[in-house]
Amino acid sequence: MVSFDSFEKELEQNGLTVIEKGMTESLPDFDRLMYAVVKR
User: Fold this and answer.
1) What is the pTM of this model?
2) Residue 36 near residue 11, CB atoms below 8 Å
3) Beta-carbon count within 10 A of 10 CB
4) Residue 28 to residues 2, 25, 31, 39, Cα–Cα distance (Å)
5) Per residue of the chain (40 residues), what is the pLDDT tens digit?
């Protein structure tokens, strides 16, 4: 897993603006998921 800082920088480098970010889960397959809501 990457840090939120790295996650956000990579999105911004690809021309996206982060509106919201956080952590969630999708058990049983994934116990931790990072997500971001972005706009161009």
Assistant:
1) 0.75
2) yes
3) 12
4) 21, 9, 7, 30
5) 789 999 999 999 999 999 999 999 999 999 999 999 999 9
